[in-house]
Amino acid sequence: MEKLPLSQCKHGLYDPRYERDACGVGLVANISGKKSHDILEKGMEILVNLSHRGACGCDPLTGDGAGILIQIPHQFLKQQCADIGINLPGQGEYGVGMVFLPSDLGQRQTCEALVQQVIEDEGQGFLGWRDVPGNNAEIGYIARDSQPSIRQVFIARGSQVHDEAHFERKLYVIRKVIERALGQRNDDLGEHFYIASLSCNRVVYKGLLLGTQIKGFYPDLSDPAMSSAFAMVHARFSTNTLGSWKLAHPYRLVCHNGEINTVRGNINWMTARQAMFSSDQFGDDMEKLFPIITPGASDTAAFDNTLELLLATGRSLPHALMMMIPEATGEQVEVSQDKRDFYEYHSSMMEPWDGPALIAATDGTRIGVVLDRNGLRPFRYVVTKSDLLVMASEVGVLDIPPEEIRIKERIHPGRMFLLDTNEARIIDDQELKADLSRRQPYGRWLADNKITLDELPEPKDVKKLVPETLDKLQRTFGYTIEDLQILMEPMAVGGTEAIGSMGNDTPLAVLSGGPQLLFSYFKQLFAQVSNPPLDAIREELVTSLEAFIGSEQNLFSETPEHSHQLKLKQPILSNAELEKVRNISVGKMMASTCSTLFDIQEYEGSLELAVDKLCRQVSAAVEAGSTIIILSDRGVDARHAPIPSLLATAAVHHHLIREGTRTKVGLVVESGEPREVMHFALLIGYGAGAINPYLAFEILHDLAGRDVLGGQVDGYIAEKNFVKAVGKGVLKIMSKMGISTVQSYRGAQIFEAVGLNEELVDRYFTWTSSRIQGIGIDTIEEETRRRHSSSYANGRVWANMELDQGGYYQWRRDGEYHMYNPETISLLQQSTGNNSYETYEKFAESIDRRDRQLSTLRGLMDFKSSDTPLLIDEVEPASEIVKRFATGAISLGAISREAHETLAIATNRIGAKSNTGEGGEDYRRFIPDPNGDSRKSAVKQVASGRFGVTTNYLVNATDLQIKMAQGSKPGEGGQLPGLKVDEYIGWIRHTTPGVELISPPPHHDIYSIEDLAQLIHDLKNVNPQARIHVKLVSEIGVGIIAAGVAKGHGDVVLISGDSGGTGASPESSIKHAGLPWELGLAETHQVLLMNDLRGRIVVQTDGQLKTGRDVAVACLLGAEEFGFSTAPLITMGCIMLRKCHLNTCSVGIATQDPELRKRFAGKPESLINYFFFIAEHLRRIMAQMGFRTVNEMVGRMDRLEPHNAVEHWKARGLDLTPMLQLPEVSDNVATYCQVAQDHGLDQALDHQLIELSKAALENGERVDIQLPIRNSNRVVGTMLSGEVAKRYGEEGLPEDTINCLFWGSAGQSYGAFLAGGISLTLEGDANDHFCKGMSGGRSVVYPLEGSTFVPEKTTIVGNVVLYGATGGKVFIRGLAGERFAVRNSGAQVVVEGVGDHGCEYMTGGTVIVLGAIGRNFAAGMSGGVAYVLDEDGSFASLCNVDMVGLEPVVEEDDRTVLRHLIEEHLHYTKSESARRVLETWEDVLPRFVKVMPHDYKRVLEERKESGLTTESVSIG
Amino acid sequence: MGKPTGFLEFHRRPPERRPAQERVKDSKEFYLEWSEQDARDQGARCMNCAVPFCHTGCPLGNLIPEWNHLVYLGQWQRALERLHATNNFPEFTGRICPAPCEPACVLSINEDPVTIEYMEKAIVDRGFQEGWIKPEPPASRTGKRVAVIGSGPAGLAASQQLNRAGHLVTLFERDEYIGGLLRLGIPDFKLEKHVVQRRVDIMAEEGVIFRTGVSVGRDISIDDLKKDFDAVCLTIGASQAREIPVQGRELNGIHLAMEYLTQQNRRIAGHNVSPADAITAEGKRVVILGGGDTGADCLGTAHRQGSEIVYQLELLTQAPDKRPPNNPWPQWPQVLRISPAHEEGGMRDYNVLTKGFSGKDGKVEELNAVRVEWGAPDESGRPVMKEVPGSEFSIGVDLVLLAMGFVHAEHEGLVADLGVELDGRGNIKTDAERATSVPGIFAAGDSVRGASLVVWAIAEGRQAAHSVDKYLMGQSSLPSVQL
Prior knowledge:
The structure holds 2 protein chains of 2 kinds.
Chain A: E1 21-30, H1 37-49, E2 66-71, H2 74-83, E3 94-101, H3 105-121, E4 125-131, H4 141-145, E5 149-156, H5 164-183, E6 194-199, E7 202-207, H6 214-217, E8 230-238, E9 254-258, H7 263-274, H8 299-312, H9 317-324, H10 337-347, E10 357-362, E11 366-371, E12 380-384, E13 388-392, E14 405-410, E15 416-420, E16 425-427, H11 429-437, H12 442-449, E17 451-452, H13 467-476, H14 481-494, E18 499-500, E19 522-524, E20 547-549, E21 566-568, H15 575-582, E22 591-595, E23 597-599, H16 606-623, E24 628-632, E25 640-642, H17 645-659, E26 666-670, H18 677-685, E27 690-692, H19 694-705, H20 715-736, H21 742-745, E28 751-756, H22 758-764, E29 769-775, H23 777-792, H24 822-833, H25 837-848, E30 861-863, H26 878-881, E31 885-889, H27 897-910, E32 913-915, E33 939-942, H28 951-955, E34 959-963, E35 975-976, H29 983-989, E36 997-998, H30 1009-1022, E37 1027-1033, H31 1038-1047, E38 1052-1056, E39 1065-1066, H32 1067-1072, H33 1077-1090, E40 1098-1102, H34 1108-1116, E41 1121-1124, H35 1126-1131, H36 1154-1157, H37 1164-1185, H38 1190-1193, E42 1200-1202, ...
Parallel strand pairs in A: 17-21, 22-24, 24-26, 26-27, 28-29, 31-32, 31-41, 33-34, 34-37, 37-38, 38-40, 40-41, 43-44, 44-45, 45-46, 46-47, 47-48, 48-49, 49-50
Antiparallel strand pairs in A: 1-8, 1-13, 2-7, 2-8, 3-5, 3-6, 4-5, 9-10, 10-11, 11-15, 12-13, 12-14, 15-16, 18-39, 19-28, 20-21, 23-25, 30-42, 35-36, 50-52, 51-52
Helix pairs in contact in A: 3-5, 7-8, 7-17, 10-11, 10-12, 13-23, 14-19, 14-20, 16-17, 18-20, 19-20, 24-25, 24-37, 27-37, 30-41, 31-33, 34-37, 39-41, 43-44
Chain B: H1 6-9, H2 20-23, H3 36-44, H4 53-57, H5 64-73, H6 76-86, H7 90-96, H8 101-104, H9 116-130, E1 145-149, H10 153-164, E2 168-173, H11 181-185, H12 193-206, E3 209-212, H13 222-228, E4 231-234, E5 240-241, E6 254-256, H14 257-268, E7 285-289, H15 293-305, E8 309-313, H16 340-343, E9 347-349, E10 352-360, E11 363-377, E12 383-387, E13 393-396, E14 399-402, E15 406-408, H17 414-418, E16 441-443, H18 446-449, H19 454-473
Parallel strand pairs in B: 1-2, 1-4, 2-3, 4-16, 6-14, 7-8, 7-14, 8-9
Antiparallel strand pairs in B: 5-15, 10-11, 11-12, 11-13
């Protein structure tokens, strides 16, 4: 068969570069380095116990990969080799390669011959090959079909090689030479050849296996002779099932759980640096290592490649890891000066590899483990009294008697853990880093060599514009009045980005009639599911805008010169600062300015030549010793137009990378063009180190001078605010991709282009995705010329140099086209109000019309009619079709009660579905109205804010939707302005009225694909009848994520388009983030088909679907369900005021103002009419195309064809073929959802609990249950809670009705969504997501009897405990991990210590911490109270006091609450801490700090004044 | 932008009108001034809609939210700039436009719309007061010469735009005044003539050459016209009035509305009208046929002349007070309009068909009419009219004014001589760019569109200017207007 595995090639929209994975990682070691077979057995046992973190695809027996990395088992191999006639030399004298070879014998021999040849060429001894036995009887068919021939090659150390390290380097060279030789061949041999490991001290056994299969597959591993002092194991959950053996972990040095978000930039920079590499260790061999990073490598592989290089060139394992994954050292973080200097110094040579990463790496004797600065992956460990170290993503993966345990801990964010088996000890972070930080006088080197702007002399001459040219420049650079008013004014006045609402309905840049800035052809990418976005607002301390620019030195050496660069606090330069840079003359620093203007009067094609010329000019400047290049478009006049700044920057950046000189210079952009946040992000993303937006500054001064910005803001303040807003905005865009530092973002190219052709992209924006082709540089030139001529046309000077309106944000008659315009809005309202299909047809015609105005990708597609069209009566009835329709997730809060309930009534009447949105739902709506209408939303959304997500809410749902991203602002959390949080909304959301609600950007229980699978499982447990949705937003790779969702047992995946609406989002997000659903949907359908997963998941799409035609295209591209939001709102009276964020909706929809709500005039009938019109319109198209049912039509992208009739000056170059390419799969692959997912609920412990609780559930009698528990028992108590809520509603059962006692290590999501009346007691410990979403009941945890460790210093529960809890009580004897009680809105908790970010976003409840806390406590906390026992006085420095005040505990009420809860804690857990506090109550009390949110305090006081108690607050 | 809660804080409050009894005694405009704060409060009511329906309701595409906002901020001069960006003559439209923008205002869905028209007037009046409105002659001349024929609002707008683009414009007018209907048709109480003249003066200073009393085709030959100018723009209006071919039409005392109104305008301007020619309502029983704006102008004029009694008769049915369901927002509401003239008196009657006139000594004395009913529409979509048997009646009358609208441009003379093609309705036929069938000859305004609003005429003139400029120069940065 031997055809290229699908995973290796692009097909349609599928691009393997966007494959994602995540997983469970484990490690077991003997601390003193004693080898034994037992370690291997334990390693494999960990794999078995982590198997729920891995995944399998369509073939239940094919895993996504599992593996084990161990030391070379010398005794075992010597014996095995002897049997086949290979005489192995002594330990360390030979290397072992674990090689995957082609299964075809001929091909295999070719490879083997090559391997032998290279070994000999490199002067080492070839000893022979050994077949590694592989028993594939138990593995899946996909794994079997793709199974390589697995052999070990043995290499004897050559005579010139003096030591083990040298030999290891030689083996590295051999591997790289082989890889390159195979990579350069014309055939596909390289695809089937892979070296899993080649080393003289370690070996990797891995494969496309489940964690449980490793042992059975490799008999070697069970051989008692095989031994190692440690075993690193890994179970993989990948997004695809296009099985590949080589993608299993461990890699050669590392196991990785998470993602490297900056990988594109890291690879670019490593490539750029290569030319300057010089190493004594390698000498001439250096070039043999190129390319350092294997082309097409995954993020982990790229990391592994780089780490390998750093180790081989002489850095120690911990040193290299510190360079690659530095911890946060921002101003808010307390770090020693030495360490700060170490990190700063090293940042001059390498940008961080940034992302949610837990990396375990080994050099054969030492094992280093690091966690990224955000601490987004769990890693728990135990050290026993007999020197055994067990580390894993979960606690409880090995059974260890409690009395054996010496230490029980977790890895903290940014911290490193090092086991040195030579030294036979664990070296803690502090000692380790202190030693490394003092290796060299880094601080002095920095002081002597680093340059800052402050040190540079004030420039004599700062450039200014002459006022007369301002108008012309503005027009030349395409400024509009909207740019000034809507974007720049809020930045200049408030220092923040403008907020807007509703979705984008203007054409893609490539379909726009007018010239567009090049920036507009790019869309921001964002993290979803496989990696989390970060929180640039609440977790600002991990972010940084600081960066070096200048000339980098050799990566492998350490000299004072390395830090001889310019350090910038942030990347936007004022005019004066730019002049400082321009005139820099310190040491070897030198700046050159290269003009980016081109002569407009030359012939067409001059732009391309000008870019070439610019690149040559820059090269010459670099050659002449410049370390900073300023790309400047100053000097525009009638003859000279500017090269678009993004084109100039990216072209130079990639030119220098290719030339190998990129790291010798920093790029500074001096341009009149950039003015919005997206522009700056793009320039940085394509290589700019700093930007001087001189025209934007000039405009700000002009506006201030004209008194447009209000009296307080002069030009100077405006400029300062603007720079601040840009900084914040860029941080936000970075954070959407989970990138923390601007240094890593620079050159990371986190964008997808839409409408640029391949030639242009390959040349100037290399490696950027652009999937449907589009314009080339000639059209960019034409656009530039058009803008220029609007200022300088024919030499005529207009008296009236008014700027263009723009009309991009608000419709204007002569501005950009909007699909929702006065004509379409009124036609839609009239048709649905009067039930006139005729009028609807006029509406549809106006929307669908393509002769006059192209707006969307679907507009570029035509239907292929059938030769044998059907009669309309033969098509399934509209009443069936409307059941596939849903309204979008619009929260109560974003819209009024009246509007929200109208949507529900309308959809419920016709069997369609409405969606709660993220704001919870009044439980009184769960009961039908007397007239039979139901106000209950069928779809209940679970978003990152978890507002009002109670158990009762979850069980009252047909579907549960996990919102991973939202089309209008993917990568950001929901946002509800304080004006709209009235008493009723606050009550439903469990939040403080009047306080703005911003949801966390990530779900704190989803940092990876296996976490998502876990949440799906959690929700399925609480409501087994509900379909679980996952809402994603279209971007490249979304199909791959969707496949991951299917494998994670999602029942429905929703692919949202970028144009979806919003109640409030930053304008740059509305306009520039995400991609059209057409792309995401087509990719999803293609990838699901290729993986044979399409049949088990429903695909829904939404994003400004307006007409039956839109639905038909969506169906043909792969959707079987359809969502609508904006159009339904319009049928209810919305007139696109886009004032949702201001609470002033004049038609009573997007407002909570009681006066305005009275104006709501929407009727359910209008929406019902609309849905039937859509269905009818769809039926007509179906008849014409010959489809009887929607199911027949799903995914028939082959029945679409590109629409060629339109002559559009920009759209001509588009190529939709990849979107319309149906993958070739066998006939039995399902093309729409036909089978239900197997959620594996039958294994749940809760079946037992429910059975045992029968008396309680049915009669309310008390029951007591006692059971052992272990980490594979996940989601315990949840299904039971669902049963309670279904029967007993919001309140649940009376306290202590169902009592459960467990002992052992509980799995993830223990106690999730616990309902009232259930009391859980756990003796032992628990993993992540403990009691998340708890809405009642009680949960107690304390160590197992017999434990000898000190509980109050021991991590007993994992990360993200109590996330989104709405009620109940929890007592934890011991420490909790990071992000404790995030979004708690009602639970009362006592815990003895928490990690970073405790009580973040909390809006209610009480948290008592009796011990240490981590950093950033109470960030964004707006309600509830925390009491922290601050023994050492450090609390104030660890608490984020933006929104809270710190007070002593003096009020009687406070003292009572505190004492009472601590007494309960003692009662339930026997806590020593509690006992001590109570015994010395009066002495200890002054050391308690009460953390009180300012807003909460205000509201409580207001209520007190108005005589209301908290309880009596109206529920409307 | 704007004050988000303004519409909740302030109610619609247009400027007050002078009391009817007082204003009928003179020919001055009837609105009182707003205070600065009044205007700013009213500006604050604008919601700055992302889809401003007012802006589509306005043929000129006036940037209404922009200037409402600026007035709210008190930035009058910038407001004036934004107003002039789309409208050459806001002082005309601010006074006499029926303001289709206002019923299209989003607020009018469930309350009173923003006082858009008065805002426009307030801004431009402020501009003149402050001296901000000054001649803006072009920086350089293109050397091209353009003839614009007819000096109504379309001709004035086209001339000003073309002049600003650098062309040398000659505007021909056959009457003795520049301004067309603005000057001679519209009564002073709606638009005082110094308002027209001050704009004409500014245009003259900008370099537009005005030639009054010149009838092109008679006083200047077509050949000379073509020879002397690089392009011609016809803005000659639709002055052919609709007639009523009934018995007794020839009797004395029956006049076209325009004969009556122009004479009154000349009289106010100080012309002597010989008693023999005078048409006056003083002491007379007056009947106005036609219920439109011209009829209302006649009504107001008759009151001011001291008429004894005035009837206004309309063939069609009285429009409802509120929008019927088939005429929803944001469509132009087909509702009963009460113009200021109606406040001053007169009796309106509907469903009346005039059958003829009778009189003595060649002088009209009676109007004979019958009541009609309107039935369901026929095949062509027009409702069918039926006379009500036995409903015949007569009204004693001394003066009858025919205000039943206009049919099209005058064909005789210029139009015929130029040979431009006409459309089925007798209007000059042009493409969307306003080019006629004859190269180099453009047409705009009522002569193309049929009788319409001043705001349409200005829009037409602006579009024609854009097209003429493009024709002359190959490209144009003059704004193009969707018509």
